[in-house]
Amino acid sequence: MKRIWITLAFLLSIFSIKAADITTITNAFKGGNASALTASMDVEVDMAIPGSAKKTNNSEATALLNTFFNSNKPSGFTVLHHADKKENGFFVAKLPTASGEFRVNITYRSEGDKAIIQSIRIE
């Protein structure tokens, strides 16, 4: 009987873990809207985009993304892999643009059901 209760408690704890919602982030990348990402960024963000790699505050990260999107107009955004672990997660996506296809890696921490971006790497 004790095993049944332990198994039941374990299963309930697994089902109570909720993945962070990355929809806001994916929609912003799909539309090339860096401003929509500002609310989803941490205070400091590790940024790596073609021509620049540095740790920035969230407003500078938004400006860097705006510059990138102005030069590379997105025509879609497809998540290839997404994983969550307790309070952290990441996803890998492809970003087709008018000037070529890019690979995007984003790491985040979960705050409730919201994803807070900690790093963005565009290659």
Explain what this protein looks like in three dimensions.
The protein is an alpha+beta fold. The protein is built from three helices and six strands; from the N terminus they run H-H-E-E-H-E-E-E-E. The protein has a six-stranded mixed β-sheet with strand order 2-1-6-5-4-3, with helices on one face. Strand 4 (88-97) and strand 5 form a beta hairpin. It is globular, with a radius of gyration of 17 Å. The chain starts with a helix and ends with a strand.
State the gist of this model.
By secondary structure, the protein is an alpha+beta fold. It is 31% helix and 44% strand.
In CATH, the architecture is Roll
Strand proportion, as a percent range, falls in 35-45%
**CATH fold-type name:** Nuclear Transport Factor 2, Chain: A
Strand order of the largest sheet: 2-1-6-5-4-3
Rg result = 17 Å
What is the domain tally? 1
* CATH domain class name: Alpha Beta
The major β-sheet equals: 6 strands, mixed
Query: What class would the helix/strand composition place it in?
Result: alpha+beta
Please, what is the average pLDDT?
Answer: 88
